[in-house]
Amino acid sequence: MYKKIIVPVDLAHAGKLTKALKTAADLARHYQAPVCYVGVTTATPGSLAHNPAEYTTKLEAFARTQGEENGIETSSHTVVAHDPTIDLDPALLKAIDDTGSDLVVMASHVPNVVDYLWPSNGGTVAGRSKASVFVVRES
Amino acid sequence: MTDQASTGIPDPEGAADIIDTEFEIGQDNIEGNVGPFGFDIHNPVFLISGLSVVAFVLYALIAPEQAATFFGWLRPALTSTFDWFFLSAANIFVIFCLFLIVSPWGSVRLGGKDATPDYTYVGWFAMLFAAGMGIGLMFFGVLEPAYYFGTPWGDAPLGTVRPFDENGALIAANVEEARRMALAATSYHWALHPWAIYAVVALALALFSFNKGLPLSIRSAFYPLLGERVWGWPGHLIDIVAVFATLFGLATSLGLGAQQANAGLEFVYGVPNTVTVQVVLIIGITAIALISVLRGLDGGVKVLSEINMVIAILLLLFVLFTAGAVGILTEFAQGLLAYTQEVIPLSNPFGREDTGYMQGWTAFYWAWWISWSPFVGMFIARVSRGRTVREFLTCVLIIPSLVCILWMAVFGGAAINDMIADPATSLVKANVIDSYSPELSLFAMLESLPLASITSTIGIVLVIVFFVTSSDSGSLVIDTITAGGKVDAPVPQRVFWCTFEGLVAIVLLIGGGLSSLQAMVISTGLPFTLVLLVMCWAIFRGLQAERNGT
Predict the structure, then answer these.
(1) For position B9, what pLDDT does the model report?
(2) Which candidate, B132, B101, B327, places its Cα nearest to that of B249?
(3) Which residues of B201-228 are buried (b: 16+ CB within 10 A; e: fewer)?
(4) A25 with A70: CB under 8 angstroms?
(5) Which A residues in the span 13-42 are in contact with B, Cβ-Cβ below 8 Å?
(6) Which helix (H) or strand (E) holds A40?
(7) Strand, coil or helix: B215
(8) What angle (nearest 5°) sits at the alpha carbon of residue B401, between those of residues B399 and B403?
(9) Which domains are present in chain B?
(10) CATH number of the domain residue A81 falls in
(11) Fewest CB atoms within 10 Å of the CB: B112, B309, B312, B533?
(12) Torsion angle in degrees (nearest 10) through CA of B222, B225, B227, B230
């Protein structure tokens, strides 16, 4: 039913994504669909990498580990954003199109009052993407 | 394994010379939540810079007279005592940048050998001007040339002859020389020297961030000097002073700018000149800046900068054609010639007799540009990845200098024409020389041209939007420094800084203290001059390592 699953990951907080990663792996096995892990980084040095090339290497390694641990086919996709705090949503939407994914599995926090001011990334992607979106609550 | 051909990395980054440091970006940060709002801030830098801003605001409110006396004394004391130091340092920055353009190090690319530019030339230029200079061009474009042309206060550059006698009548024989000198002396303050100041800071930060892998923060340029200590208190201190100078620089300019915009509104529309109107202006400017930072670097700051550039070009063309294009373009050529002839005598730091001009204007300007340089330099650095050092310096130094000389020739030329045509009725002369109302100088000049009510409105809009583009880019810079160099800190943080800046401006506007705290900010230009000199050395070392591949 699904051809390709995309999972947005924040490598700096990968520990908080356990539930979403497991959900994606289960769905991948069930539908025999490959999983693409998408990460957004900047050209300026950040806590994870000095430059986008180094970030890509880390994301590739992350995807490889996920593939080996879960026995699924994986890939990675890096997006470079000028201002990731704001550009995350459009970057993810573009990545969904660019990778030809038809299912998004993404972690999101339990909504609170701030979501009225700044909608969550999961909420925005679900609201705008043509692909099916599975928002996983990491509580 | 990878799937990155389309939007991924622009290109392989190629060899860059990453500095091997134990430090990890964000290691001193505190992450958490205040109520429902997330934050990710650098531990001492955020708190100390925020609290010291509050402390200085309180000082200015509780002891306004003492603050005014102290800072009112401090700023001119520094610029008159250290005039030689400011002038010499600025000369060093210009020579250093010009040297790098022609040197083999000019071929080093910011971001690694194969990096590609993040922004087109148009977007890049728009942001260069909008962040650091736009508002000044609006305020001083008419004021400064008109002032030097007619000043009766003895601070004419290089002791130029006066074109008016004691009764205000024209002395025809002196006009050409006074005009030539007025344009040269103004261009001197807006061309190579200020842009070299910005370029040094921007190049240091871009090099140490994009090529060496250090955080995008002022302290990173000190790594060659301080080594690992730069991540401790010496580095904290450098970043705190940068945040402090940027926030106060923006807040006091915003407060004083609101007064100027109000004066313009009164002049053009008869809007009452009151604190209430000014507070409304500050709230309006802050609100637009807030929308801009919430739309991000590409969707907000860049778009607004480009809109601003288009309106500014239209205004420039309007003044050029209505004030006589041929005459003014000749004047541009003459201004350029006068600038090249006079730039060396004007930048001579020793043995000058025109101390009124040298200390009151030049040293003041240099301190002012330098106190703004952490903010503007850091913003320029952030948008300049992918350019070679030569391309970067040509575009940050040479081209903006030519644009500024053109701007001054057009606006200043039109103003001087108005003063010469009929000194007795000239509004420019009335508002600059006869009674000194600097905030009205632009509107007085526009009044002498056709369609004054429309162009004055455009002038007011430009003044306001240039404030917005300084305010939004400044908020992004402060947010990055106080997040330890992270550019992906949570949204509420940038909202906090943008709002805080507006609040400081309002409190100082109502309580008094704008001018004294602005004098304090300009005083930070002195320590930062040393910082910039160290940066020159650091750039040199950094580029050497880059070329040698060590």
Answers:
(1) 34
(2) B132
(3) bbbbbbbbbbbbbbbbbbbbbbbbeeee
(4) yes
(5) 36, 42
(6) strand A35-41
(7) coil
(8) 70
(9) 34-548 (1.10.4160)
(10) 3.40.50.620
(11) B533
(12) -40
Q: Using the beta-carbon criterion (under 8 Å), do A76 and B215 form an inter-chain contact?
A: no
State the average pLDDT for chain B: 86
Q: Using the predicted structure, report yes or no on whether residue B248 has a pLDDT greater than 50.
A: yes
Which alpha helices (H) appear in B347-451, and where do they start and end? 355-357, 364-382, 389-393, 399-421, 427-429, 441-447
Number of structural domains, chain A?
Answer: 1
pLDDT band at B314 (very low <50, low <70, confident <90, very high): very high
Q: CB distance from A94 to chain B under 8 Å?
A: yes
Task: Tell me if A82 and B298 make a contact (CB, 8 A cut-off).
Answer: yes
Give the model confidence (pLDDT) of B105-134 as tens digits. 999 999 888 888 888 888 888 888 887 777
The residue behind tokens 């020159």 is B536
pLDDT tens for each residue of B149-198 = 988 887 888 877 888 888 778 888 888 889 999 999 999 999 999 999 99
Asked if B210 and B111 count as a contact pair (C-beta separation under 8 A), the reply is yes
ipTM over 0.85? The verdict is no
Q: Contact A56/B9, CB-based, under 8 Å?
A: yes
**pTM of the complete model:** 0.88
Q: Does the pLDDT at position B203 exceed 50?
A: yes
